[in-house]
Amino acid sequence: MRALLFIAALALSAGPALAGPVTLRANPVDDDGRVTLGDIFDGAGAASGVVVASRAGPSVVFEAGQLQALAARSGLQWANPQNLRRVVVRHALLASGAPAATATPAGTTMRPAAVAGATAAVLTYARNIAAGDVIQPEDVVWTDVQSHLATGGGPSDAEEVVGLSARRALRAGAVVGARDLARPQVIARNDTVQVAFASGGVTLTVTGRAQRGAAVGEVVAITNLTSGRTIEAVASGPGRAVAGPEAQAARSSQFAAVR
């Protein structure tokens, strides 16, 4: 009997991890700007109140794979039997029975077409982001906002911001701006750095101290701990930099990646 009670207690304490399969609502809506798993799925159970996005405009657009991952974090399994690519959650007052999900080419993360009228689709933060946090795919969602809030020069593809780090604290629902994010630093000021010089098949490595922080591909001044001389190198990874011919190649490849 004690064993049975213990197993039952474990099952109850597991909470949403045992919630199991869920079904996408026919027309997902929210009425307060806080989009929850219960707004999106039937059968969400104890995970119904989990907030997965903030809606700043008439709707929030999720990539289907992103939505599956968010559901799985709370123990929910959505099989996506219709093979949808995007799911739209609209303001309850504006839904009017419009279709909730639309099929788009597999793998696309591009900006959805702007809604007719005085709104535009922009990339917004799905949660509060702390300074230094690295942006993950589930951290950004497409949202329809009033056109005057759609600042020029914003990203046209979610892939442009995934992997970047926040320069400052960012609020859920805010429009993603180019000045919000930067490539994550792999070298911090005063870090000990191994600098590799490679030329003609010969590589020489020296140890130095970084004079400032740098992301991959950025130039950083390194003071040689043995000679005291300061050289310019290019950050190539955590605690690593290159100088000489490889430095220019590292910068060129980084510029190509940014474009």
UniProtKB/TrEMBL annotation:
The keyword Signal applies. It holds the Pfam family ChapFlgA. Residues 250-259 have a biased composition (Polar residues). NCBIfam families: flgA_cterm. Residues 120-182 form the SAF domain. It is found in: Periplasm. Residues 239-259 are annotated as: Disordered. This is Flagella basal body P-ring formation protein FlgA. Keywords: Cell projection, Cilium, Flagellum, Periplasm, Signal. One of its GO terms (cellular component) is periplasmic space. Residues 1-19 form the signal peptide. SMART domains: SAF. GO terms for biological process: bacterial-type flagellum assembly.
